[in-house]
Write a structure and sequence with these properties.
It is a single chain. By secondary structure, this protein is mainly α. 81% of the residues lie in helices and 0% in strands. The protein is built from nine helices and no strands. The longest helix is centred in the first third of the chain and has 18 residues, at 2-19. Residues 1-22 have low confidence and may be disordered.
């Protein structure tokens, strides 16, 4: 009886660890992209491929590919400075992230909101708020790359706000993770 209870405990422990394995959202997003990183296609052709990817994901009711497609199109339109389309795709992706409750997806949305706040609105304080919220979701998702990169961005935001001691603190937290 003790032998079987120990086996059951070991099996339960192994299952718990495997179900809580570290995530790497960025890797999944990169691997699913129908356009390779070193592609020489024009931005219009890249956008067309991403639109096709999204349309297929919607047809097949694949929520993950749908989310990824929205993020690809967010970036395509960000590169062409079409911020109306950027906002449209970000809102759609945010709705999916909220529906699923996936913390990695929620972190991805907040990181993009921070990017827009900092680079488009030139609002480092708003960007910092988004990065801090994203850090919580990166932690919940157990995605160490997300955590490290977010800590690094928090450090940069503090530096932009001339809060150098806090910036250095977050940079020191980020360094071993990265």
């Amino acid at each position: 009886m003790i032998f079987f209870s120990r086996i059951l405990l070991i099996a339960f422990t192994l299952f718990s660890f495997s179900s809580q394995a570290q995530q790497n959202f960025k890797k999944e997003l990169r691997e699913a992209n129908p356009v390779t990183a070193n592609s020489t296609l024009s931005i219009e052709k890249i956008t067309n491929k991403h639109e096709e990817y999204l349309a297929k994901a919607i047809r097949e009711k694949n929520i993950t590919q749908n989310f990824f497609g929205l993020l690809y199109l967010f970036l395509d339109h960000y590169k062409t400075h079409d911020y109306l389309e950027v906002s449209k795709y970000l809102l759609q992706a945010e709705n999916l992230a909220k529906q699923t409750g996936n913390p990695g997806w929620q972190a991805a949305i907040l990181l993009r909101k921070a990017l827009l706040a900092d680079n488009i609105n030139n609002d480092s304080k708003e960007a910092l708020k988004h990065y801090e919220m994203a850090l919580k979701f990166c932690t919940d998702a157990r995605d160490s790359l997300c955590m490290g990169e977010t800590l690094e961005q928090i450090s940069a935001m503090h530096a932009q706000l001339e809060e150098y001691e806090q910036g250095q603190y977050y940079y020191k937290l980020a360094l071993p993770i990265l």
